[in-house]
Amino acid sequence: MATNRPGNDRVNLADVAKSAGVHVSTASRALNPATRSVVSDATVAKVMEAAGRLGYRPNPLARGLRTDRTFTVGIVVPDLENPLFPPLVRGAEGALGAEGYSLLVGNTDNDREHTAAVVSALVDQRVDGLILATAELGDGMLPALRNEGVTVVLVNREADDPSIPAVVGDDDAGVGLAVDHLVELGHRAIGHVAGPHRLSTGVARAAAFRDHMKRHGLDGAVVEAGWFQMEPGLAAATELLDRHPGLTAIVAANDLLALGAYRAVIETGRKVGAGVSVTGYNDMPFVDLMMPPLTTVRVPYREMGAQAARTLVAILGGAEPPDTVRMAPELCVRGSTAPPP
What we know:
Blueprint: H1 13-20, H2 24-31, H3 41-54, H4 60-67, E1 72-77, H5 85-98, E2 102-107, H6 112-124, E3 129-132, H7 141-147, E4 151-155, E5 166-169, H8 171-185, E6 190-194, H9 200-215, E7 221-224, H10 230-243, E8 249-252, H11 255-267, E9 277-282, E10 295-298, H12 301-316, E11 325-327, E12 330-332
Parallel strand pairs: 1-2, 1-3, 3-4, 4-5, 5-11, 6-7, 6-8, 8-9, 9-10
Antiparallel strand pairs: 10-12
Helix pairs in contact: 1-2, 1-3, 5-12, 8-9, 10-11
């Protein structure tokens, strides 16, 4: 059990150093993930043991005054009720915590003005950097942040400017997995419910759909949904089936759009899977419990968030911004896909 000094005063760094038998500066380096590598493993272990035994907790305010940093990072997401974003946030939080950073979360409800307000509030709180899952193509906010000297890493989205580091899923590979699966089942009349084209994910997945259909010598009909939600998915899938009644399969740009496609298929009097196959994208929680369970492309969102956090910390430590990191997807085959009737 951790014990404090007599009088229950707060344990400080000097106490840890004295207990470990090292200089205060050595204890400081051993406890800081950014400088730990310059201290021997044996010394690090000795200092960490002393800190744990004494119940030492670093003072982030004092640490920030010494380094002109707050050791906080902001992450901004468009919709925390969308099941793909909590794992992303958890991944970032875990990776940042391991490096001695705290995470502040901002939710924007898919509203541009609210996004600007949330980002401004985080910058005013002097976060050391931002992880943004809200970037839109043509977004003027990103150049403004760069001009202010704010370190930014994008996650799940890309920007027009490729020099802004981003950690995203490999949309081309993921959509290719879905198209290949449907073609292998015998489908030839395949449509795509696309995400909004103001977002890089909507553009990239629609382009990948067209490219992979062309690779198989097929044409594919595409209808754009207004947003990555079920109701826009229903509207887009209904339009797609009205315009192309012979379709036997739909590739949806995310799982919520696929839910809308389920409803559209059912409203035509057909069954999902046996009548019209449907694939999703993301592998949200509980899509395996749908009727029928959804065949979808799984994206490692928790690891994506962690990688974005590690990238940001590396840049804050002086590393050069890396090229875009693309995380490999995998296909989860379930009951919503079957050979065409």
